[in-house]
Amino acid sequence: MNAARVILALIFCILFIASYFTNKYVLSNLKFTFPTIFQGWQTSTGALLLLVTWKLGLVEIKGFSRSAAFSQLPGSFLFIGNIYAGSKALSLLPIPFFFVLQNVSEVFAFLMVAVTHREKPSWMKLFSGYIWASVHLFCVGTYKVFQKNTKTSHLSDLEEQFINYMTSALLLASLAYSTGDLSGALDFPFLTSYRFQTGCLGSAIFGFCLMLATVKLKGILPQEHCGVWCFLAKVLASGLSLFTFNTVLSPETHFCVILNYTGEAFFVYSDRFH
Fold first, then answer.
1. Range of lowest pLDDT (54-58, 224-228, 268-272)
2. Is the model's pLDDT at 126 over the cut of 50?
3. Which residue ranges make up each domain of the chain?
4. Rg for the chain (alpha carbons), in Å?
């Protein structure tokens, strides 16, 4: 791997950690428990930044037909479920255990693809299976299956993300009003504080930059190499979170986290021979 690819992968790891840490700070430390507002802010900012960078010629979006946009809507709804449930889960769970539950989606997606494509599953991949279930992992896993089986393959990753951003921002805005999150957020005690505003701004910018870095990384590295760097980013984020946030893990949870990363290491390693 040349120096440029290593630098990009390291930037990805830094943005990965920064994105999850700022989200965790706003959701847990500042206790901003209004996911429709928080995720609506992030997706609307992401859509705006993607539009601006496209107009400036920094990223390439070729454009898409109305039918292609409509065919992406099931994926967009799964994307909304992913970020909404993920926001709620991240606010309540330590970062290491949040990644444990996230990895269940990988197993779910793998099993679904194995069934739909009638592939013989690898025992090494099944070794990393878990029995927990949640809305977050269901949406993440189902979205990955949707991406593998969708007929909108002519849409680029950035075009798909732009549709997801726009759909999420519009739907979450309406949900924020109907659920009362909007009025609750206006009464939030930290609303005018520098820490809250900095955290929200950082979460949106880091999230957008992480998305761009992820798309770029997938474009220049093989899938198995991307999996290695994503695994490294998760391990670093989990380890650093123990010193950054007030995280108390029981011996059982420590064992679960270690078992999770052992399983994921096998999963990543097995990709080399898939």
1. 268-272
2. no
3. 1-32+190-220, 95-135+222-274
4. 19
Q: How far apart are the C-alpha atoms of 261 and 130, rounded to whole Å?
A: 12
To the nearest 10°, the Cα dihedral for 265, 95, 22, 160? Answer: 50
Q: Would you state the structure tokens that stand for residue 104, as one six-digit string?
A: 């269940």
Neighbouring CB atoms inside 10 A of 206's CB total: 21
User: In this structure, what is the dihedral angle of CA atoms 100, 105, 108, 110, given to the nearest 10 degrees?
Assistant: -100
Residues 10 and 7: their CA atoms lie apart, in Å, by 5
Compute the distance between CA of residue 13 and CA of residue 115 in angstroms, rounded to an integer.
33
CA distance 115 to 32: 40
Instruction: Answer whether 172's CB lies under 8 Å from 40's CB.
Output: yes
CA angle at 34 for the pair 183 and 78, rounded to the nearest 5°: 125
**CB-side neighbour CA atoms (13 Å) of 92:** 9
Q: Which residue has the tokens 């630098």?
A: 7
In the chain, % helix, strand, coil (3-state, to 5) comes to 80, 0, 20
Q: What band does 123 get if pLDDT is binned at 50, 70 and 90?
A: very low
Q: How far apart are CA 144 and CA 176, in angstroms?
A: 27
Q: Which letter does DSSP use for residue 26 in this model?
A: I
Q: Among all chains, which residue has been given the structure tokens 């946030």?
A: 245
Are 93 and 81 in contact by the 8 Å Cβ rule? The answer is no
Say how far apart CA 54 and CA 32 lie, in whole Å. 32
DSSP letters spanning 182-222: HHHHHT-TTTT-HHHHHHHHHHHHHHHHHHHHHHHHHHHS-
Cβ burial of 1 (10 Å; 0-12, 13-18, 19+) is exposed
